[in-house]
Amino acid sequence: MGEITTDKSNVLYISSFPPRECGIATFCKDLTNAMDKKFNPSLKSNILALNDPGGIYNYGKSVVMQLDEDDIEQYVDVAEKINKSEDIKLINIQHEFGIFGGEGGEFLIPFLEKLEKPIVITFHSVLPKPDKKRLKIVQGICKRCHAIIVMTESAIKILYEDYGVEKSKLHAVHHGVPYVEFLKDNSKLKELHNLKNRKVISTFGLINRGKGIEYVIKALPALVDKHPELLYLIIGETHPNVRKEEGESYRKELINLINELGLRRNVKFYNKYLTLQEIITYLKASDIYVYSALDTNQTSSGTLAYALGAGRAVIATPTFYAQDMLKNKKGVIVELKSVESMQQALSGILGSKKLKESLERNAYKFSRRMLWENVARKYLEIFRNVVDVSETLGMYKLPRLKLNHLMTMSDDTGIIQHAKHLLPNRFTGYCLDDNARALIVACGYYSKIKKGEKILGLINTYLGFLHYAQTGEGYFQDFMNYEKKFEWKKGSEDSFGRVLWSLGYLLQSGIHENLRASAKFIFDKAIGNVRGLKSLRGWAFSLIGLCYYYKVYKNKDILEKIRMLADRIVSDYGSYSSDEWKWFEKKVTYSNGKLPEALFLAYEVSKDKKYLEVAEESLEFLSSLVILDNRLVLIGQKGWFIEGGKRAYYDQQPVDACSMVCAYVSAYRITEKKEYYEKAFLAFSWYLGNNSLNQTIYDEVSGGCYDGLLPRCVNLNQGSESTISYLLSRLELENFRKN
Predict the structure, then answer these.
(1) Do residue 379 and residue 522 come from a single domain?
(2) Does residue 182 belong to any structural domain of this protein?
(3) Integer Rg of the chain from CA
């Protein structure tokens, strides 16, 4: 068995590849881009490009070998070359019957027989009830592969029942999709592309007779009478292989049909091989996407996958792939070659805004698991079944820090509490907690990453909010509505403690003197209320702020308060902990990592070893609950975990992942134990897809973070708490990255 470590290793992908115009080529490029983005340089993608007869292509640097698909001798020569390469640890073949030489692609079998490397194959087509020739070829391929990837559960069933492939080899991984922002209203985009006031139906991809476009065109006349603004866009050039055999005859037949039916104003062609950005633009401008394939045996479709990823209302013929993907009200299935069925489906969506919006929401929500970064992680999991892969592969590769969404959520008053998808939901106003933690992010970015007027403006805004929220007694008001009026006169002890945490952080972060003076004024006015706090997390948050404060101002009164709060936390630990339950209370709830973290910091300034002992014991216990199978599995907010009961697994919140990252970072900084360093990055990887759903929580495009893991999907809103939690976690790891 090969081994992929954190040293440089290569996976060789065998596939057609751009600039060759082919759906498999595009798929391979997108997959390898996603793999490299997540795992390169530890795991690098190389390409063996398959050339069609007579094809000469100007490939990029990632293509390290080429193979003419109809040259049987070359297959053997290339296999020997692969065997001699020590860097190639694994081979992934992107398989479609038409891109390998010989009858039914049989040239692939002697190639596989010659290879001495582990092989994972991805089948883009799996045909049911095969003839003897195809059965023999597919069985021969599967016998020589260590793992087999398909894109739908139907394909697994076919390979198992019709081909006799052992189930242990079979894995379903979704066709990947690019990130596309959910667009509920596309009227502005339509206007930009000369589609103003049109109701747009679209079909895209390489045009061929198997697309069934004529049945969509025939369904339009009755609809145009009711919806004269209807426009059907047929987007894409004719498939190169079709063009070689019959030229543009199919497109000409469609044009004749359009003229016969009087639809010249309502049907338009865009005859071009589309770039990814063009595909996304036309999908976002569409109201309905139609997938009218005539071959019901299709077990994958990039065009249908992309339409779901863009959150479009989809109508499809009953292929295996469409039936699997559109169930549970994610789209509408129509009868094959039925003009009437197509007409009814189009009419139903065009006539019902409620139905259209429901289909769009369901499609978009489901397709978050199909994002390329999630597909890349699934591929790595399958590779782990075939070769030894380091558990830390890709773990130390961090996304670039972006404050875009933090800025989007902020105005000149503060940071708005919630979002509807990406849009700030101003009806929800501003809360004290979010503005306190946003202040930490802004200060951390300013002192660790980049100084600038915009970031300084954010610091002023958030600090100003805390100052305005403070009462004459030194407490803080918790919630301000969008009309700038506070609705709660006294906030929670948690929010009080978080304010002290943020002010203490600012004081030790190197922000210039006048802002530090303002922060110290607010802190000093509040500090007299610490002794009266009664809640465990109120103590912990306040203790963290006091420790930061003490690093700058060595005040005996502050040290006394640090000891007082730390002793209270340790006392609760003594009251509730046992050999089996090493915790501070009879339940494990939220922001759990903050409790041991506060004690680590208390030890750092006081050198009292009892704080360190309890911090380490409690963090070890907490880790045993939330690190399962080398991933962070947070305590769910729907039920928590009460001693002697069953723990809740959902909903998992970004703020709890943040508390774990911060706890491990502090533990490592103070003890220098490597296990904490590794666990900090493991906890952070929760945001990047190493979680219970294998789905990315962080949105690299917006710089925001989804509002948590639900049992079957992510919460698509990107509110302030979630985004701030991600940014706090990422900032905590910045010093590790630099060192």
Answers:
(1) no
(2) no
(3) 29
- Taking 70 as the threshold, does the pLDDT of residue 411 lie above it? yes
User: Which of 14, 27, 191, 219 shows the shortest CA–CA distance to 100?
Assistant: 14
Residue 487 token pair: 């609705």
User: What's the distance, CA 169 to chain centroid?
Assistant: 26
pTM: 0.86
Q: State both tokens at 401.
A: 């820090």
Tell me: pLDDT of 646 over 50.
yes
Decide if pLDDT at 248 tops 80.
yes
Look at residue 347 and give its three-state secondary structure.
Answer: helix
User: Residue 355: helix, strand or coil by DSSP?
Assistant: helix
Alpha-carbon distance of 537 to 498, in angstroms, equals: 9
Same domain, yes or no, for 522 and 667? yes
At residue 6, does pLDDT exceed 50? Answer: no
Per DSSP, the residues of 81-123 read HHHH-SSEEEEEEEE-GGGSSSGGGTTHHHHHHH--S-EEEEE
DSSP class of residue 639 equals T
Q: How many CB atoms lie within 10 A of CB 381?
A: 13
For the beta carbon of residue 53, count every other beta carbon within 10 angstroms: 10
Same domain for 502 and 434: yes
- Closest C-alpha to 668, from 726, 739, 728, 570: 739
Q: Is residue 359 part of a domain?
A: yes
Here the CATH number for the domain that contains residue 238 is 3.40.50.2000
DSSP-derived secondary structure letter, 714 = B
In the block, tokens 């065997």 appear at 83
The residue to which tokens 């339940």 are assigned: 587
The pair of three-digit structure tokens given for residue 236, joined into one six-digit string = 């894409």
Residue whose token pair is 């990947």: 176
* CB neighbour burial string for 506-526, b if at least 16 within 10 angstroms, e if fewer: bbbbebeeebbebbbebbebb
* Gap between the Cα atoms of 61 and 43, Å rounded: 16
Question: How far is residue 704 from each of residues 315, 325, 428, measured CA to CA in Å?
Answer: 32, 27, 18
Cβ atoms 78, 48 nearer than 8 A: yes
Please give the residue range of the domain that contains residue 123: 3-176+373-389
Alpha carbon distances (Å) from 378 to 32, 384, 423, 510, 693:
13, 10, 30, 42, 11
CA distance 10 to 190: 44
Q: pLDDT tens digits for 175-203?
A: 999 999 888 889 999 998 899 999 999 99
Tell me the two tokens of residue 149.
């990837």
Asked whether residue 559 falls in the same domain as residue 660, the answer is yes
Place of tokens 């499809």: 316
| Structure tokens belonging to residue 23 | 């759906």
| Structure tokens that stand for 329 in this block | 């009200």
Residue 622 tokens, joined: 């907490």
How deeply is 65 buried, as exposed, middle or buried, from its count of CB atoms within 10 A (0-12, 13-18, 19+)? middle
